[in-house]
Amino acid sequence: MNKCADINERLQKMKNFYLKLDEMMDKLPESIPADTKKMIKDKILGDKELKELMEGIDKNRPPRIFLVGRTGAGKSSLVNALCGGYVAEVGDVRSCTEGTKIYNCTDNGRTLMEILDTRGIAESEALNEKSAENTLINEINEFSPDVAMLVLNCTHRDDVDKDALFMKDIAAQYKKINNVRLPIIVAVNKCDEMSPTRFKTANEYPQNKIDKIEEAVKYFKGIIVNNGLKIDDIIGISALIDWQTKDGVEVDPENIKNLPKHDIEDLEMAFDGRYNIDELLQMLDKAMVDTEAQMGLRMAFRLEELVRRLSNHITNIFAGIAATVAITPIPIADIYVLVVLQGILVSLIASLSGRDISLETAIEFIFSLGGVAGAGQIFRFIAQQTAKLLNGLFPGAGSAVSSTVAFAGTESIGKTAIAYYIDGKDIKAAQKMFKKMQKDNKKK
Ligand SMILES: Nc1nc2c(ncn2[C@@H]2O[C@H](COP(=O)(O)OP(=O)(O)OP(=O)(O)O)[C@@H](O)[C@H]2O)c(=O)[nH]1
Ligand SMILES: [Mg+2]
Questions:
Q1: What is the reported pLDDT for 5?
Q2: Kind of pairing, strands 100-107 and 110-119?
Q3: Which of 70, 97, 376, 377 has the most crowded Cβ, counting Cβ within 10 A?
Q4: Where are the domains of the chain?
């Protein structure tokens, strides 16, 4: 249904590459010094961030989110907005106390997150009875949320006092029972309805609209603080998405529930009016204490960003290795050490994009950036073409490659590989980008 679909496959590719690294190093040409191979291995396998991600691939669980908010505030819509697709409320849709339910958000059979939805509970008269509130507290504790999200409607300024007090009460009980604080994020929803209301696309919001949103968020924050509710963060968002069936027929949100199951599964976005949802995900990520849940959140919703960050991180590691290798300037004849190193970097980045490319393919990619085509017999070719390569890949190098040049050149190749494999730029654009970076490197 959405881009989460191939996550498992992609993650497995990343992990395979990581696990194969040892083997790959051993297969490299003899002429690469053993200590260089060892350094590469140690730097990559010893990297904390990379290790955490690899462990996270096997050890993660769907985060549990406790939703609080009045009927119509947009809780269900927000869940869809976070998932980037229409998520059916499936699993064991358990109805608990009047108005609360627990459900799983799934995508292709994979649970993205678990939701405890206290639908309209804050406005329920039943809460005036101690027993009803106790039942709710029990349910929350049984659910054991990683984070609570209070959803407010930015155009409804009444009742926020009550909601804040309700949340404060829940948080206090939670703390008493669990001995840890319940992280709370406040999402001020329906910001698209702030004037001027005709701007519905996030990147078209004019400044006066953004200012109004910020003002509203400040106002809500004031009320929350005045009521003594401690929150982790607050943000103005819009969960607005219009849906259509596969045949392009737009559907009314109220009617979606009545559609046949397969139609619901195939729903597509007719209009994406989401605002600040990535920022909200960042807040949720930050607020979560449990690392397995945090990983689960990242895997489900923030993979692109995670992958980009990691690719940059790996590029830095490799640029550092290249600089170390070139501490004693590398003579032309040994240039392939650098090219092979960069080849490994490129294959790693490709694997992070979910592709499975050989070292040869990666090196061919590098050649093509330097304007050398049709590499064929890669390693022999490198030996024969070093002079040409030097000009193409390491500008400013005379008879040997210095540390600085090795660092900058490797960094440029990493960045170009990210643009090509991860951001999906075409090869022409990648070449252009690479040439520009080389020009800038020369100036340094
Ligand atoms: N313009 C706009 N409409 C929204 C937004 N979020 C939700 N809505 C609409 O508001 C209405 C209520 O949204 P829901 O997501 O069903 O609200 P809810 O909080 O789950 O309501 P209950 O399940 O009754 O507690 C629907 O018609 C949504 O389409 C938003 O950010 N902007
Ligand atoms: Mg709902």
A1: 43
A2: antiparallel
A3: 70
A4: 3-58+304-443, 64-287
Q: Please report the atom of ligand 1 found closest to the CA of residue 193.
A: 1
CATH architecture for the domain at 64-287: 3-Layer(aba) Sandwich (3.40)
Q: Which residues contact 263 (CB under 8 A, 6 or more apart)?
A: 245, 246
Our answer on whether the CB atom of 115 is closer than 6 Å to any ligand 1 atom is no
Mean pLDDT of the chain: 84
What lies within 8 Å, CB to CB, of 11 at 6+ separation is 57, 299
Q: Are the C-beta atoms of 405 and 323 separated by less than 8 Å?
A: no
The answer for residues whose C-beta is within 8 angstroms of residue 264's C-beta and 6 or more apart is: 86, 88, 256
> 190 in ligand 1 pocket by Cβ < 6 Å?
yes
Highest mean pLDDT among 44-53, 318-327, 412-421: 412-421
- Please identify every residue whose CB atom is under 5 Å from ligand 2, which is an ion: 75-76
Task: Quote the CA–CA distance of 54 and 49 in Å, as a whole number.
Answer: 9
Q: Dihedral angle at the C-alpha atoms of 126, 127, 129, 135, nearest 10 degrees? A: 100
**Residue 192 near ligand 1, beta carbon < 6 Å:** yes
